[in-house]
Design a protein that fits this description.
mainly alpha, 11 helices, 0% strand, globular
């Protein structure tokens, strides 16, 4: 196991529980099981904390965070809810992102709804797969999927080494989040690419 994978595992273990809380609470809110006031309250899993922890709070006008959430919910309940590039264009057109195209923000918001297929995009993961700054999500995702396929043995071996720890974390979410194994796998791939990009 390389030091990259060891660092990525440490990052995964440190953040996986909060990732699952954010995913769970977004779905609770989307399904009417969590009020807007509760979802904005200062507590684990709230929307504003998610934006801050995922490094995109600065990309959106702070006076329009409630509008961002409304647009996100509207987007994920329509056709093609995982189209990150189109969603990024909508956020720009609605003047939520200071007139800039914020694909990272769009990918991270839609990740909350579909963590089974969406791998969040940022500058570090783009560097890891040798993509320029102005990359679209449609350009990034195939390269991330290719990375998963090429490194499947090392990824599986690494995850197996901490399986007991991850299973303990997942136990609290089994009744509300489906297919945790896929989320676990994707979160680790994201951490590996982020670590590679950080070290480049």
């Amino acid at each position: 196991m390389t030091t990259i994978y060891i660092q990525a595992l440490g990052n995964l273990l440190a953040t996986y529980q909060s990732d699952l809380i954010y995913i769970r609470d977004f779905h609770r809110f989307k399904n009417g099981k969590l009020s807007k006031s509760d979802y904005f309250r200062k507590s684990k899993g709230n929307f504003k904390s998610f934006l801050a922890e995922y490094g995109v709070a600065r990309n959106v006008d702070k006076t329009k965070v409630d509008i961002l959430l409304k647009l996100t919910i509207n987007w994920v309940t329509k056709n093609n809810p995982s189209n990150v590039d189109s969603f990024a264009n909508q956020l720009k057109s609605k003047n939520l992102t200071f007139g800039k195209l914020m694909t990272s923000l769009a990918s991270k918001n839609l990740f909350l709804n579909d963590p089974w297929t969406i791998l969040p995009l940022d500058g570090r993961v783009k560097r890891a797969v040798n993509l320029p700054y102005n990359t679209t999500y449609a350009q990034y995702l195939p390269l991330a999927v290719e990375f998963k396929k090429k490194n499947v043995i090392d990824i599986e071996k690494s995850l197996t080494s901490v399986r007991d720890h991850l299973t303990i974390i997942e136990a609290a979410f089994e009744k509300e989040i489906n297919n945790l194994r896929t989320i676990r796998y994707n979160r680790f791939v994201d951490k590996i690419l982020w670590t590679i990009g950080k070290n480049d």
